[in-house]
Amino acid sequence: MSGSTKPDWRIAHIALDEDTILWRNADVEQERRVAIFDLIEENTFKPIRAAEKGHNGPYHLALAVRDGRLALTIMDTDENVLEELILGLARFRRPIREYFAICDSYYQAIRKATAAEIETIDMARRGVHNGAAELLLERLEGKVETDFATARRLFTLICVLHIKG
User: Fold this and answer.
1) Which pLDDT score is estimated for 33?
2) Count of structural domains within the chain
3) Domain of 105, in residue numbers
4) Rounded Cα–Cα distance for residues 60 and 62 (Å)
5) What's the pLDDT at 152?
6) Where would I find the H helices in 14-58?
7) Which SS3 state, helix, strand or coil, does residue 107 take?
8) Residue at 135 is within a domain
9) Which of 17, 29, 113, 140 lies 20 to 30 Å (CA to CA) from residue 52?
């Protein structure tokens, strides 16, 4: 936490509340693994209040859904809680539904569609994903400075938390 330490504005570890995830299949599990791997490999994450108090990162982040809200628990590398952000999920419900529907189509298409059909579905999937990432950036404004790629990966993990059997 020393002010002389060079800031390392990134997530070094991320955990999903396993109690929140009610069901997942192999495709979803792969999405989760890739999103976490990519997120840890490259991300930008600067929680404003923690930074103002001298915490220079890197951070551990835990995601959970509680009472219909997204809880982002931001910790230091010793797992000391620095702050918890609670975001309402109402504005994410439609993008999450759309993303699941398109992902279902995508997973089915991979098994039996032409390359052109798969590409069309993937473009639609990316469009929904990008729109949701923009929404997440908007919701984090003034709370966490992050980039578009990090927001996209976080949205994927938010979706994983919403899977119901």
Assistant:
1) 86
2) 1
3) 11-161
4) 7
5) 94
6) 26-41, 48-52
7) helix
8) yes
9) 17
- pLDDT tens string 61-82: 999 988 889 999 999 999 999 9
69: enclosing H helix or E strand: strand 69-75
Tokens describing residue 83: 């702050």
Separation of alpha carbons 73 and 20, rounded Å: 15
Mean pLDDT of 125-133: 93
- Amino acid 80 reads N
Residue position matching structure tokens 């759309």: 98
Asked if residue 133 is part of any domain, the answer here is yes
DSSP structural state of residue 74: E
Asked if residue 163 lies in contact with residue 31, where contact means CB atoms within 8 angstroms, the answer is: no
Tokens of 130: 């990008």
Residue 113 banded pLDDT, cuts 50, 70, 90: confident
Per-residue pLDDT at 106: 82
In a domain, 138, yes or no: yes
Contacts of 124 (CB under 8 A, 6+ apart): 102
Which region, left, alpha or beta, applies to residue 2 given φ > 0 means left and ψ of -120 to 50 means alpha? beta
Please tell me the predicted confidence (pLDDT) of residue 134: 97
